[in-house]
Write a structure and sequence with these properties.
With 257 residues, this protein is of the alpha/beta class. It has one domain: NAD(P)-binding Rossmann-like Domain (Rossmann fold). Helix content is 46%, strand content 15%. The chain is built from nine helices and seven strands. The chain has a seven-stranded parallel sheet, with helices on both faces. The chain is globular and about 55 Å long. 44% of the residues are buried. The model has no long low-confidence stretch (mean pLDDT 97). The structure holds NADP nicotinamide-adenine-dinucleotide phosphate. The site of NADP nicotinamide-adenine-dinucleotide phosphate (NAP) has 30 residues, from helix 1 and helix 4. The site of NADP nicotinamide-adenine-dinucleotide phosphate has 30 residues, from helix 1 and helix 4.
């Protein structure tokens, strides 16, 4: 049983859907004040309403400096500070090399990677004032470990987040701010569910634990990084993928029986 985080405040970027929603719900359940951030105010408000009176929505584009500064100002005004940042917002449009434009590449890097830098920079004054802080980045297995056709820009952004994390962890250690990352495998989100049962079944077949991950699986790992018990862990990442990256070939999966 982890010590209580009751009364602390978390900002969850991309908290209106998918993994971010799972993180927001889990942190809300653990008694934190939750600022749910997405570009859509209505979607962020809907998740906040599901959590309860200790949560509220905020509309911001985290690929912009104003957006990130605004969300931190809102958290400080509403809850008195920021203890935890979950830098989770991300996009994954597919485009293969030869078709991918420079604008496509910039858009993904800016939404997934530059937003990580901007949101971390924006929370620093509040965490420095508090004398401690927890930053949890949602990276991916795609990029740091695996590849997938159409996702060279996405993979670069997710691997880039881990490179950013390691230096950020060293720089922020004297302020008692830890920076860690979760690396999800295939997680069942609203978008994926729309692809139908056959597609889902084919994805499940590539996972040794024979199911897709749920947003709550990622949220539990994020909550651990935010816990007091994880105070001595920084600059680290944890893969949460049901064993997806383990089989060295298709025959290894088949040999599981
Ligand atoms: P999702 O269901 O599409 O949700 C994305 C969230 O990010 C939404 O709340 C969206 O809200 C928000 N968002 C997107 N662009 C934004 C921006 N510029 N500013 C603020 N908010 C923005 O995505 P997901 O699958 O949960 O993915 C969440 C994170 O997990 C991403 O970083 C992704 O790379 C990572 N991940 C996902 C999987 C997976 O299997 N799902 C696997 C590995 C890693 P608005 O559109 O309203 O802004």
């Amino acid at each position: 049983m982890l010590k209580s985080l009751q009364g602390k405040t978390v900002i969850v970027t991309g908290g209106s859907r998918g993994i971010g929603k799972g993180i927001a719900l889990r942190f809300g359940e653990a008694g934190l004040n939750v600022l749910v951030v997405s570009r859509s105010q209505a979607d962020a408000d809907a998740v906040a309403a599901e959590i309860g009176p200790n949560a509220s929505g905020y509309a911001a584009d985290v690929s912009t400096e104003e957006g990130c500064k605004g969300m931190v100002e809102a958290a400080v005004a509403r809850y008195g500070g920021v203890d935890v940042l979950c830098a989770n917002a991300g996009i994954f449009p597919a485009a293969r090399l030869g078709e991918m434009t420079a604008a496509d590449f910039d858009h993904v890097i800016s939404t997934n990677l530059k937003s990580t830098f901007l949101s971390v920079s924006a929370v620093l004054p509040a965490m420095t004032k508090a004398g401690s802080g927890r930053i949890i980045i949602t990276s991916s297995i795609t990029g740091p470990i695996t590849g997938y056709p159409g996702w060279s820009h996405y993979g670069a952004s997710k691997a880039g987040q881990l490179g950013f994390m390691r230096t950020a962890a060293i720089e922020l250690a004297p302020k008692k701010i830890t920076v860690n990352a979760v690396m999800p495998g295939n997680i069942m989100t609203e978008g994926l569910e729309g692809n139908g049962p056959e597609y889902i079944a084919s994805m499940e077949a590539s996972v040794p634990l024979r199911r897709l991950g749920m947003p709550a699986d990622i949220a539990n790992a994020a909550l651990f990084f935010a816990s007091e018990e994880a105070a001595y862990i920084t600059g680290q990442s944890i893969v949460v993928d049901g064993g997806q990256i383990l089989p060295e070939s298709l025959s290894a999966l088949e040999a599981m029986g």
